[in-house]
Amino acid sequence: MPLPRGDEGVARTIRLIRDLMDAAVADPQVNEAAINILRNASVQNFDREAKLRALYEFVSWPNFLYVEDPVGPFGPKETVRTVRTLLRVRAGDCDDYTLLLASLAGTVGIATRAVTVAADPSAPNDFSHIYPEAEVSPGNWVAMDAARPGAQYGLPAQRYFRKRIWSLTDSSYRDVAGQRISSMRGERISNLSGYAVLGQPDPNVAAEDISAVGQSVANVIAAAKGSPYGSFVTPYTPVSPPAGYGAPGYPGGVPGASLSLAGISPVWIIIGVGAIALALRETRR
Questions:
Q1: For 6-225, CATH number?
Q2: Neighbours of 206 (CB within 10 A)
Q3: Residues 119-164: pLDDT tens digits?
Q4: What residue ranges do the domains of the chain occupy?
């Protein structure tokens, strides 16, 4: 069955991540992997921040490869890999990074939560990125966002329209007031249409059918973009922001809406000027 659009679909994916994490933190293989990571990093017994940094470095380039979700005839297939699979292939997208980091921290006794942000100006209401935060000390949470260019331990999203903090121990969440980045208009499909679990999760965890991406969605994209793929993205697919923006949700540019002829073929400029001149001449007659 297809996932609901908007926040309901995101909430269902968070529930899937929570279920996969619950199975992973009790998995002896996952626990052993986390302990080996900490031991190899030579962290001290009670230095929780050093442990988190070691786990973060493990789930970062070049140890971990960012790969986007599979793409088929009807668009991308939102996938969530199991923790065992992630430890084996060491690759995934931001929801995979979130699951893996949360599970590795959780299996050594460190609480985590998930954060989703809507940072794409063309779809300000749709969550476009997810990352985990870990409780380095009571009430003190640190961002562990490794699935973006220029990622740094402790650097959270700083520019966004919406931000929601999700508990990974129950179904609660908390919204954080967004920051108005711009007043751009436009709508685009950017919702989950279906997801699947890659790997062998706990048998009690059910996966959505990835074949549920509707033909109607593909038809809309094909009609609008001339391609069955178009620019279809899911809430957890990092997007390319307009010129003047840095990475979604992060510093690195000033919003702007100026018009530039850079990059336009001179042939088209000549044709455009000629058309304007012809129109003016017809107007004067």
A1: 3.10.620.30
A2: 10
A3: 888 888 999 899 999 999 999 999 999 998 888 999 998 888 999 9
A4: 6-225
